[in-house]
Amino acid sequence: MNQSAICLSVVTLTLISALAGCISPLPKDNSIQLKNYIIKSHSRQTSAVKDAKPNVLNYKAEPLDFEKDEKRVKQLLEKYGPDLYKSEKIDLGNGLDGKKSQTIGLSLEQTIRRAVKHNLEVKIAQLAPAISQAQIIAAQAAFDTVFFSNYTLTRADQPQPATVISDTQSVALQERAGVTHNLETGIRKRLSTGGQLSLSTTMNYNENKSSVRTTPNPANLVSVTAQLTQPLMRNFGAQITRAQIMLNRNAHQRDVLNLYTQMLTTLGAVESAYWRLRFSLDQFAIRTALLQRTRATRNKVKERLALDGTPAQLSQANSLVHLRALDLIAAERQLRESSDELKRLMNDPQLPIAGEIVILPTDEPIDIPVTINLVDSILTALKKRPELKQALLSIDDTSIRQGVADNLRLPRLDLNLQLQYFGLNHNFSQAWKNLSGINYVNYVLGLQFEQPFGNREAEANHTQARLSRLAATLQYRNTANEIVASVKGALRALKSSYAGLQEARKAHLSAAENMRINDERQREFERQTPEFLLNQQLDSQARLAEAEIRYSQSILDYNISIIRLHQVQGTLFDHNKIQINLPKDMVRDLNPKKLPALTPFSPPQKNPVR
Asked: N or C: which end of the chain has fewer CB within 10 A?
């Protein structure tokens, strides 16, 4: 008996060690296949434009006759250009609180830093990775060692039928009575192979008080039990047991990428809002200057009433004054709302949105050409856009589920091993000594087999998982196509906005020249007729203001196009010199190790924004 017990113990421990080492990881060829698929998919996108070269934005608008005279252009810009209004102090009157509105100047860098630190949408997105990280720990906790203890007290006083030997013999009624204390303690651990190993000890104290005597009485029965349950086919291996951990890790990485995406979105929104506020400020200054010029011209018409002016002409001039005052009111409202929108995005406690302090941008947008490269822009977007990494995670998820579904098609064959050692004595300590002698040993070897006829459910689930992986793979290609389309669209928008900027510049110079000519004609006394003032002077003032606004709008469009290009390339953090450190194992082993060195976007050498 002792030799058999020892042999069985050795066999049991050997089998447990072997099963613990047979962890079947998720298919290693998945990452290799994905890398090859990524490289092929990217090559398909770039091969069509492999001959594209870097080029500087270039658009030549129809030249103006006077544009060759640099001195004259400089004088026009000094007298009628946007810089004319920047030295003037902005007067916004009273705010909603009834007090004189105060202003604060912020650079783009200051605005971005405040937004990255305080933006509420970013803070909300930061919670998701922390939640999914806790879910990973919860899934890993399934393999933690568990301590268990069970105690039972049984007090029995139960009549039992007596054994009758002869019909004529009288036998007293028997009874089952006594007190039993049972305590079981032990540990159990779920194995990565899919099985469960437990080791426990049981202490049983039984005091017999029935009519039938037993020995020893009281009796102390102690036992030690080692048990292993292990699936051998279905549900075997880490591919099954660790699947939820892997899925939770992917979910965590997806949440981190969502945070990255949200920060990209927020950063783009903040920078765009900053330049829109710059445009609103320019428009307010232009409308203010136009109203001042219109009032000055109206006063001259009023002075002409004594000579050749008419009340109708004065009423026409007054009408224009009030219309331009109306435009100024709208411009002031837009300036305040643009300031509030920027404050909402920043969420800076020092600049609460409820306050009436108006933010005034101190940086100037760029209006000089930049260098673009179609191939590098596409490659950079395919490498850096978080949407593609999320698509890869979806492929990884479906690969995990497909591996699980493939395993679940196998028959169920479970192994059950149990080894028990016993010791019995009326004395508790002596019972433990008897246990160490290994005189009483129970062992159990069991196998359970199960297989549905047709196995239709498992086969259907495997087909569903396989098709889901195919769909995720196709979705990756679709996402890549969408990214390429967005990059090309951003490049076209940048190119057209630069062309529009050049045309708007020409229009502004032409309007400024027209204004200069009319101002010179106005200096001639005989030219200051009411008709001239109404039909020429006021009209040239309006044309100049509209040209200035269109020019400012074109600069805004050009800078937002630059922001948009960096967004679709995933390089907006680099553009603003913000360092974001993602986990090193982000989308582990799914990206190809080698991609060409990329320079997606070449900014001008001198950029007043930075």
From this structure: N
